[in-house]
Design goal:
single chain, 486 residues, alpha+beta, Thrombin, subunit H, Pdz3 Domain, 7-stranded antiparallel beta sheet, 6-stranded antiparallel barrel, 22% helix, elongated
Length: 486
């Protein structure tokens, strides 16, 4: 059956080859086709980098209830009793032990690569996380028990150490020089098959799939067991750590992701020095700036990070950042999209003094800020305006809003300087997502501290144009676009 299947495939191949040869003979594009056929040769790269790649096996301790001396497991005995099956002839059981036995069993297989000649090895955090024992096997078949120096789940980077010297360390490449379409190679242990080599091209850079990492996307075949192995450029330099795949089946489907090596090195340096990673924070909740909001506030293009809420007493609060601000720069670095901000701040040393540029009501402001360190999430305390009921105003019905003043006690409780409370939101305002209890902070880019200012801002607004409203719900600030009636 196999032979019969191969015959027509071989015949078709020969026919196609003949046609291709004839075409090349007369084609004016022969030099270009010849260049296209000059595919890269990875053999030298394998010889160069292969000895630096290691296989990592992890073990875990499990409790066993199996008796000694060939005696039957208790669960198996219960099975025979429950279904009335004849008991097999077994040796007499020893008295039941009070303490369960422990045995080390294989937990998983991954890959890694030698970072320094004295035994520091880099891999993925998910490869070694939770392991009771880590075994590292070199290409020369030497095996070592490794000590976990540190793991960082946010970046999925881990560093382990073996007691050896004179090891072949990798060369770290410059991720900034990496180009989309460039050939790259991976070495690892997919499904436990050690030192497997696969190759492909860089499909994309700065791919958003994590909070702190812009991944490198490739079409290099990556499967379970490749995790933690190196992504190598044509200069024999490691540019990434193979970490994730996109799959609906559990296997490779043409899309894989690698942690950029510059990010991984920053994490590994901290793990080696202190065993943990310290990340910066400023205490804001952010979201992406939409095109509609950017145009309405005069920002131009939809860039930066929209501040939805500011942690009371946090670094941003002390710096004067407010809900509704657009953070456009951090220490001079442009924030193109909201996900850029946590990455840049996360990579800033806690305690550092930095400058944040915010866009607020048509102007840019530079604010000095001191970076704090990421800690455990604090429970959010939702503010409420439950003091005496203020006198309501019907002004704003043209856009479907009825608002009222905030008392000093309410402003203090809400930790805001001004604003008006929405008593009802109907028609256009309701369609824009506004509702009773929301606090309006600005209208048409004009800050409002009272009903009078709210009325004045509405009076100046062109009723035929969309009205931009900055409001606060709970502790989150956001924009609403009230569109005029058609």
């Amino acid at each position: 059956m196999k032979t019969l299947m191969l015959k027509p495939i071989r015949t078709i191949f020969v026919a196609i080859s003949m046609v291709t040869t004839a075409f090349v003979a007369v084609s004016p594009l022969q030099p270009a086709l010849a260049q296209a056929r000059a595919l890269p040769d990875f053999t030298d790269l394998v010889d160069q980098v292969g000895p630096s790649v290691v296989n990592i096996r992890t073990m875990e301790k499990v409790n066993l209830r199996t008796a000694q001396g060939g005696q039957m497991d208790e669960d198996m005995l219960e099975f025979f009793k429950r279904f009335g099956l004849p008991m097999p002839n077994m040796p007499r059981q020893a008295p039941r032990q009070n303490h369960p036995q422990q045995e080390e069993q294989p937990r998983g297989v991954g890959s890694g690569f030698i970072l320094t000649a004295d035994g520091f090895i880099m891999t993925n955090a998910h490869v070694v996380d939770g392991a009771d024992e880590v075994l590292v096997t070199l290409t020369d078949k030497r095996e070592f028990k490794a000590k976990i120096i540190g793991t960082d789940k946010r970046s999925d980077v881990a560093v382990v150490k073996i007691e050896a010297t004179g090891l072949p360390a990798v060369k770290v490449g410059d991720v900034g020089r990496l180009r989309v379409g460039e050939w790259v190679m991976a070495i690892g242990s997919p499904f436990g098959l050690e030192n497997s080599v696969t190759a492909g091209i860089v499909s994309a850079k700065q791919r958003d799939t994590g909070d702190f990492l812009p991944f490198i996307q490739t079409d290099v075949a990556i499967n379970p067991g490749n995790s933690g192995g190196p992504l190598i450029n044509m200069r024999g330099e490691v540019v990434g750590i193979n970490s994730q795949i996109y799959s609906r089946s559990g296997g490779f489907m043409g899309i894989s992701f690698a942690i950029p090596m510059d990010e991984a090195v920053r994490v590994s340096d901290q793990l080696r020095s202190s065993g943990r990673v310290a990340r910066g924070r400023i205490g804001v909740q952010i979201e992406q700036v939409s095109k509609e909001v950017a145009e309405s506030i005069g920002l131009g293009k939809p860039s930066g990070a929209l501040v939805r809420s500011v942690e009371a007493g946090g670094p941003a609060d002390k710096a004067g950042i407010e809900g509704g601000d657009i953070i456009t720069r951090f220490d001079g670095k442009a924030i193109e999209k909201s996900s850029d901000l946590p990455r840049i701040i996360g990579g800033t040393k806690p305690g550092s003094k930095s400058t944040i540029t915010v866009f607020r009501r048509g102007t840019n402001k530079d604010l000095g800020i001191t970076i704090a360190e990421v800690d455990a999430d604090k429970p959010t305390v939702k503010a409420s305006a439950r003091d005496e009921k203020p006198k309501a105003s019907a002004v704003g019905q043209s856009v479907g809003l009825a608002v009222s003043e905030l008392s000093d006690a309410q402003k203090k409780e809400l930790k805001i300087k001004g604003g008006v409370r929405i008593d009802s939101a109907i028609e256009a305002a309701a369609r824009a997502g506004l509702r009773e209890g929301d606090i309006i902070l600005s209208v048409a880019n004009a800050e409002v501290s009272s009903v009078k200012e709210f009325e004045a801002a509405l009076a100046k607004h062109d009723k035929t144009k969309t009205l931009l409203v900055l409001f606060r719900r709970g502790e989150l600030a956001q924009y609403a676009l009230i569109k005029p009636a058609r």
